[in-house]
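Known limitations

Files may contain more than one protein. Parsers should not assume a single record per file. Below, a two-record file is shown to illustrate correct handling: read the sequence, read the token line, then continue until end of file.
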Amino acid sequence: MRALPDFPWDSLAPFKERASAVPGGIVDLSIGTPVDPTPAILQEALRAAADAPGYPQTWGTPDLREAVATWFEARRGVPGLDPAGVIPTIGSKELVAWLPTLLDLGPGDIVGFPRVAYPTYDVGARLAGATPLPVDALTSLGPLTPSTTPKLLWLNTPGNPTGKVLGVEHLRKVVDWARRHGVIVASDECYAELDWRDRSDPSIADWRREPPTTPSLLDPRVTGGSHEGLLVCYSLSKQSNLAGYRAAFLAGDTALVKAILEVRKHAGFMVPWPVQRALIAGLSDDAHVAEIKARYAARRATLKPAVERWGLRVDDSEAGLYLWATAGEDSWTTVGRFAELGILAAPGAFYGTAGAQHVRIALTGTDERIATAAARLGA
């Protein structure tokens, strides 16, 4: 067995108990799991494909891979994605956890990931027997040698937990650096549709030329037109309230995807046929995504000012489902103060030592629970 860290959310149990004892009940904003109904169009697609006696295709059906390519062009500003470089995955978390292993990384190999990050990047490196390395910036790696150069570098944009968005110029610099050093870059972009940046702000970019989502690693302005050495994983869990379906995909370098496909065939990593049909429906309909985004925008507009009035500073949080906030104290202290109000947040310590003075507050409560949280903070 690999040496894995304790599952962090178990340590929230006493704070959950304390918050649950508050009159009116707990407002659990610690985990970013959707609470609203799965859109009818996706439920219908799943039901229509319920008669599925045969094994599904590990690679995904051709029309699914075409749907992903079409979505990348329409929503992410990535024309010409080769459908051969697409593969469905059983949610994005399993892909994050197993990608180093699928790429044949192991002892002596380094996997880099953001210093404040979703814990599964670290876990995935450990499962492969590789060395996990939190990275603040490329310059923090220092002079590179064959033994100190990462084999795989994870990006997460928009970031979890921070909500930070990496711009085109930043992504291009990472790609240029990676190609000079032979590093595979994988970008986890599952919050891309939930972009809260002010598109009237001319200092960010010429928004008229921007796609309707956050920039992708596969954007031609980033890649120079080649996806070599680049992979993007994406999930419909957040944009489509589809976490229970485990519907996601990987896209990018066709050679890397085909090598990953061969391993997944042997391992039996197959996305169920009904879920593949739901994936196509979700990628082909923008209306339900806009409705879900509007719902989260309203909750954010209620909760963010309440958190700030209560005395926390909200950092980054440009996109995604979270407020990344700090009171300038240990994150567990802030979690405890929230619990006294019947609100459960996640301590930033879950996401690395650099997050030790922040808390992550999810927008995934119902309208009533978000309003309750705001009222308690106001009181």
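...continuing to the second record:
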Amino acid sequence: MNSVTIIADKDVQWKESLTTESTPVRRLLIFAAFLYLTLFLFIPLVAIFTEALKHGLSGYIDSFLNEDALAAIRLTLLVAAVAVPMNAVFGVAAAWAIAKFEFVGKQALITLIDMPLAVSPVISGLIYVLLFGAQGWLGPWLAEHDIKIIFALPGILLATIFVTVPFVARELIPLMQSQGREEEEAAITLGASGWQMFVRVTLPNIKWSLLYGVILCNARAMGEFGAVSVVSGHIRGLTNTMPLHVEILYNEYNAVSAFAVASLLTLLALVTLSAKTLIERKTASATRLKSQR
């Protein structure tokens, strides 16, 4: 065995000693992770479904047959159906502009996109009340024209759109920046129109990240509480989303119905998590295939 081989073997052993933990340490870390998840995730999930089914399956189903519960479910789905596509379109446009072009105010646009992550949702709701409330800046003008935003559907939509703005854009910006502009420029050079370039070049390259951002955006839209609570007015059957309906039921000591509606939100979250995991696998697989070409 020559000296080069000995040095190489020692180098491998040295790297393994840095990157490989002993068996007891690995087991301890795994145990700590499972213990943490059990205490703060699994046990609460079991508690939610246990309380929701406390009066049996018929009692569980009856919790959703209440007109207020059905109205809250419909409103939640409606708000998500409006807010998510709008933020998807905005996210693609903003990511395209930031990743592909240089312009004055680019950093300001990035800061504005990140703002909902830094501002408390309650504060964002109060801003809309200040703007559109009866005593707000635009309140008297809106009242004169019989336009209602606060304590109505438009206010809930505005609050939800605000808090979900960053999710799609923030998923796409780093990806589109890493991809560069070469493929789009080549498509334009070959005679493709702007729409053809987007559909045949850009969209296939970003589709998994776009879908991932849409899933996160949808999860936040359906689960938002703080901003919606401020602008909704808590009007039963009209402006209560599912999270607000859960709060009202719990405050009225109707724990079974509250946990039943909460379990539906939990199921939606689990579906979202499953879709998120699938998208991550698809993205990783697509990245590997592209790197092998």
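Parsers that stop after the first record will miss the second one. For reference, the second record is described as follows. Residues 3-8 have pLDDT under 50 and may be disordered.
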